[in-house]
């Protein structure tokens, strides 16, 4: 798929195929949604969570952005897209699971390590620099051990981004309350594009192991 016309052709195949076969399901979804899981993933075109987890429409509420990041809760000015989506999933849809999924070859994490966009103006890389600045403390810790380049540094940074988002999720009272009451569980995961292996984070050790 290389252009919009190809997308339209893809839609027509979908409408004639999957949509027609699952007509009852789509009729049900037209009345509302009740996903049980919120997935926070990267915008990277290679890591579509609905494909990786082999789910059907309506089963997951998905938020995607550069480096699968959740900002800490803040109530200042500006637009809070991730926070709004998170609040909707938790308080309105009442999901019972939140999964933060990082991945291999993440461009956002790579940019954090290299500081590629530092001091650039918005529209030229400045928005990216501001966004991934959330990773700065984690980056400093990774660089102190692994340096700024190489497979070990990149893997450590990608896993660290998942942990940063999990920590930031717990700055939201609605999440803390539900997690404490056992109504909500948080998970960290990492998808290795090269070999297709999903790794799940051990909540006690913080280490990632194949699922």
Automatic annotation (TrEMBL):
The enzyme class is lyase
Which residues participate in Zn(2+) binding?
Answer: 42, 44, 103, 106
Which CDD domains does this chain map to? beta_CA_cladeB
Please give the Gene3D superfamilies that the UniProt record associates with this protein: Carbonic anhydrase
* Record text on cofactor binding: Binds 1 zinc ion per subunit.
Q: Which reaction does it catalyse?
A: hydrogencarbonate + H(+) = CO2 + H2O
Q: Which cofactor does it need?
A: Zn(2+)
Family membership noted in the UniProt record: Belongs to the beta-class carbonic anhydrase family.
What PANTHER family does the record tag this protein with?
CARBONIC ANHYDRASE
Protein's name according to its UniProt entry? Carbonic anhydrase
What is the organism of origin for this protein? Edaphosphingomonas haloaromaticamans
**Record lineage:** Bacteria, Pseudomonadati, Pseudomonadota, Alphaproteobacteria, Sphingomonadales
Q: Give me the gene this protein comes from.
A: cynT_1
């Amino acid at each position: 798929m290389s252009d919009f016309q190809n997308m339209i052709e893809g839609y027509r195949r979908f409408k004639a195929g999957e949509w027609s076969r699952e007509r009852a399901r789509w009729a049900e979804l037209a009345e509302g949604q009740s996903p049980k899981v919120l997935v926070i993933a990267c915008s990277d075109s290679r890591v579509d969570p609905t494909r990786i987890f082999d789910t059907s429409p309506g089963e997951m509420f998905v938020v995607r952005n550069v480096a699968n990041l959740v900002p800490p809760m803040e109530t200042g000015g500006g637009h809070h897209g991730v926070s709004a989506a998170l609040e909707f999933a938790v308080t309105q849809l009442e999901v019972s699971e939140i999964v933060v999924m990082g991945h291999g070859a993440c461009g956002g994490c790579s940019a954090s390590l290299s500081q590629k966009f530092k001091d650039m103006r918005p529209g030229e890389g400045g928005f990216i620099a501001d966004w991934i600045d959330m990773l700065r403390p984690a980056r400093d810790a990774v660089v102190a051990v692994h340096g700024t380049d190489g497979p070990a540094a990149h893997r450590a940074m990608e896993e660290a981004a998942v942990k940063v988002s999990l920590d930031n999720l717990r700055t939201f009272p609605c999440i803390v309350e539900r997690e404490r009451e056992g109504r909500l569980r948080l998970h960290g995961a990492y998808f290795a594009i090269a070999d297709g292996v999903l790794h799940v984070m051990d909540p006690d050790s913080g280490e990632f192991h194949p699922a």
